[in-house]
Write a structure and sequence with these properties.
The chain is mainly beta. It folds into two domains: 103 residues, no CATH class; 147 residues, no CATH class. Helix content is 0%, strand content 44%. It is elongated, with a radius of gyration of 22 Å.
């Protein structure tokens, strides 16, 4: 069964299983639902509604401004974007990229996608999934499960990064979030937490003028359970930093092939192997 381009102002749109739709699906205030094994020869676009697809669906780009996007297993999609909503990519599904401004991103097991970007939401990458690009969020944690891999850099300002038997090929950087590698995880680049003077905010006064500085609290870095860092570990804090001091820990069976460059005020625990130099930095 084939249908032509379909647009609705306030109504929901439903495509039955196995159908072929030639053109875009667009609605302003309704939901879009696509049944199993349907083929959409165009994009899915709902301004204020949720988008849900079944298994083995093929479509181009998917966009919702104020709604969640849930894509079923073993599908194929282009770019997937929601401004204010969660994005879930089903098991074994492929997409060009996933991006949301205010919502979490969940990548299913064995799925494959390009870069992941969320401004205010966490990112979870399930087992055996591959992210061919960066994984970044400003306010949210990032977790990678067993056998998953991110080929680009992983970065978050205010969130924890946790790898459990996973790989980050280009390293990890946070500010206030912990970095944890466990269960034989590997980072192919540096692990970095660096707090500089311009990271401090101002408090105690009108518009922040004349008040004392407030510092973000630096996260810990831990490399445990046979995990490996093929790069350096850097944790450096501004001289005026006065929050709780973090910890850097290299577990007994963990390996760091590069150097450690660690603030002298930070607790450093090295029970494993560090092939490079250990430098304690005095601010």
């Amino acid at each position: 069964m084939a249908t032509s381009s379909l647009a609705a102002s306030n109504e929901s749109i439903s495509i039955p299983p196995g159908a072929t739709h030639e053109g875009n699906l667009e609605t302003r205030n309704g939901a879009i639902r696509v049944g199993d094994e349907a083929v959409i020869e165009g994009s899915l676009d709902s301004r204020n509604g949720h988008i849900t697809t079944g298994k083995s669906v093929t479509a181009s780009d998917v966009y919702s401004r104020n709604g969640s996007i849930v894509l079923g297993e073993n599908g194929q999609y282009g770019r997937v974007e929601s401004r204010n909503g969660q994005i879930k990519l089903g098991d074994g599904t492929t997409a060009d990229a996933l991006e949301t401004r205010n919502g979490s991103i969940v990548v299913g097991s064995r799925a494959r996608t390009g870069k992941l970007l969320s401004r205010n939401g966490g990112i979870n990458v399930a087992s055996e999934a591959v992210v061919e690009g960066t994984a970044e969020t400003r306010n949210g944690g990032i977790s990678l499960e067993k056998g998953s891999r991110v080929t680009g850099r992983i970065a978050t300002r205010n969130g924890r990064v946790k790898l459990s038997g996973a790989t980050a090929e280009e390293g990890i950087q946070t500010l206030t979030g912990d970095i944890l590698l466990e269960a034989g995880s590997r980072s192919g680049g540096d692990l970095v937490i660096e707090i500089k003077k311009n990271d401090a905010g101002s408090g105690g006064s009108f518009f922040g003028l004349g008040g004392s500085k407030t510092w973000p609290e630096a996260g810990d870095i831990r490399v445990l359970d046979g995990s490996e860092v093929d790069g350096d570990i850097v944790l450096v804090l501004d001289a005026d930093y006065d929050e709780a001091m973090p910890t850097v820990e290299i577990g007994s069976d963990a390996v760091v092939t590069g150097n450690l460059r660690i603030d002298s005020r930070v607790e450093l625990i090295v029970a494993g192997t560090v092939n490079g130099e250990v430098e304690r930095v005095t601010p």
